[in-house]
Amino acid sequence: MYIRNTNSFTMTYSPELLKGTLKTIVMKLLADNKKMYGYEITQKVKELTRDKIQITEGALYPTLHALEADGLVTTEVEYIGKRVRKYYSLSPAGKAATREKLKEMTNFMDTMIALLEIKPKMA
Amino acid sequence: MYQLNDQQIDLILTDLHQRGIETESMRMNLLDHICILIENHLEEDGDFVKFYSTTIRSFYKEELRELEDEARLLMALDKGRLLLSRNQFFLLLFTLLIGPFITYDLVWMVQVSPGWFIPAEIWVSTIVFALYPLLVLLVLYLTPDRFDPLIPHKAKILLGGRSLIRVLAVDTVR
């Protein structure tokens, strides 16, 4: 449920592999794009990963709500007729947390590369 | 591009509420997301009800309120509330319900009447008062499916916060 893998034309990743990365993905996107709303985030991830990863609504919104409750994101609303669009952006605490998360992720990937003896692709 | 009218938006909002989305913020987020999907993917003369039903079904595994449970779970994990598995919760219930009687007997054995001798009336009262909770727990343990609607198999139990005990019907290992 966390992250929806896509069709058979693209390489897919197991949910176990992707679990735990969602917060980092969302925070990095917000860091790069100033403010975004839910649907926009799902589309951006699809676009950046060339459809290899699709974040499900069932995973995205709980994560955004948790980030908001933790004070890592701030929100502003835009009224579109009868409905409301909620934009998320990183708070100062969120910006610091994003840096930490990215550092942790980079470290983790380096460790995994060393552990699994994966040779980096030559350019 | 399909244009949603106010009546359809109200219908979506009511449906989200009826499906267990209690937080207004979550409802607004989902409403906007669904509206965008409908406007972008439904033909002008398309069937709104059919498209909406299919779309909303893709948001969850078993029920829509999983989204709120997931949000509560994520928030609880960050705030250090106590999160128990089904078995841990039953063990806690057992300790709370039966524990006092066993403790009472032990105290009696150690302080009031040192040794293994406990008067019959103490044994009897222990059995009488502990019997009902013990039976309940035995039924819970032996026929777990019977309690699935109450505490589903993969549910987590969150202790603390505004509601003291909350059953989260989410599978955290997904």
Task: Give me a quick take on this structure.
With 123 residues, chain A is α+β, with helices and mostly antiparallel strands. Helices cover 52% and strands 20% of the residues of chain A.
3D architecture notes:
The complex is a heterodimer of chains A (123) and B (174). With 123 residues, chain A is an alpha+beta fold. Chain A has one domain: Arc Repressor Mutant, subunit A (Orthogonal Bundle), CATH 1.10.10. Helices cover 52% and strands 20% of the residues of chain A. Chain A contains five helices and five strands. In chain A, the strands form two sheets. A three-stranded antiparallel beta sheet of chain A has the order 2-5-4. In chain A, strands 1-3 form a two-stranded antiparallel ribbon. About 5% of the residues of chain A have low confidence. Chain B is mostly helical and 174 residues long. Chain B has two domains: 54 residues; 95 residues, no CATH class. In chain B, strand 2 and strand 3 form a beta hairpin. The longest helix of chain B has 27 residues. The model of chain B has no long low-confidence stretch (mean pLDDT 80). At the A-B interface, helix 4 and strand 5 of A face helix 1, helix 2 and helix 4 of B.
SSE diagram, text form:
The complex is a heterodimer of chains A (123) and B (174).
Chain A: E1 3-5, H1 15-18, H2 22-33, E2 35-37, H3 38-48, E3 53-55, H4 57-69, E4 73-80, E5 83-90, H5 92-115
Antiparallel strand pairs in A: 1-3, 2-5, 4-5
Helix pairs in contact in A: 2-5
Chain B: H1 6-18, H2 24-41, H3 48-57, H4 66-79, E1 82-85, H5 86-112, H6 120-142, E2 156-159, E3 165-168
Antiparallel strand pairs in B: 1-2, 2-3
Helix pairs in contact in B: 1-2, 5-6
